[in-house]
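Sequence only, no structure available. Ideas?
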Amino acid sequence: MKIKEAADLAGISVRTLHHYDEIGLLVPDQVTEAGYRLYSEDNLEMLQQILLFRELGFPLRQIQDIIHNPDFDRQEALEMHKGILLERRARLDKMIHTLEQTLLHTRGEMNMSSQDKFKGFDFSSNPYEQEARERWGNGPVDRAHAKTASMSQEEQDAVTSSMNTIYRRLALLRHQPADSAEAQAAIGEWYRLLNTMGTYSLQAFKGLGELYVQDERFTLNMDQFGEGLAAFMRDAMAFYADQQENREP
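Reply:
I predicted one. C-alpha cells follow.
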C-alpha cells in the first residue's frame, strides 16, 4: 500500500507517516527505486498498535521502546487496550446519563440530588501528572507540587498571568522559524518560568515540548492562543535544549 493510501486508511496525515519513518518508529517494508514508501500488512498492524497507544496518551518515545522490545506481546497489548477503552466507555456512558438527567432537571421535568449531579465524574487521578511521573520520575513533579502548594493565591495568579503572557508572545512569533532569535528569547523565558515551579532538565524540557503535540489535550489548550502554537513551541523547545546542552562544559 502506498503511503497516501495507508495514511487515508488510518485517518492520519502523510507527514505523520514520514515522521514515524524518520524516527524509526514505523519503517515501511519496501521503498521503490523512485523512493516511494510501500506499507505491508505487518506495517499496517504495527501502525494500528502505534495509534492505539497514542489514543491512550503514550508518548512516541515510549511507544517505540515498547513495540520494538523483543518481549513485546501484541496480543497482550491488544487485550490491555480493550480493557482500558471499555473502562473509559463505561465512565463516559455514566457522564452522558448524568448530562441527560441534568438537562431534564434544568427543564423542570425531574429533580436531581446533589450526589446525582456528579455521577461519573472522577478526577482522583491526573493524566498529566501520571505521564510526567512515568517519563521523568517523581522528583520534578513532587517538587513542582511542593512549590505550588507553598505559593499564596496571589503568587499562583501571577504565575498563571506570566504563562499566558508568554503563550501570547509565542503565538505572535509562531510563523517565524523556531530557531529565530525572538523565538528563542521567548522560549528561554518559558524554560525559566517552568523552573520556578519545579526542576526541569533540558532533556525534560525538550520531552515536554514533544508532549505538547503528542497529547491532544495540551495541543487544544495551547492552540487557543493561535493555531499551530503547540507545534511551534515543541520545535523551539527542542532547539533551545540542544543549543543549551552544546554550550555546557
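The first helix runs from residue 3 to 10.
Hope that gets you unstuck.
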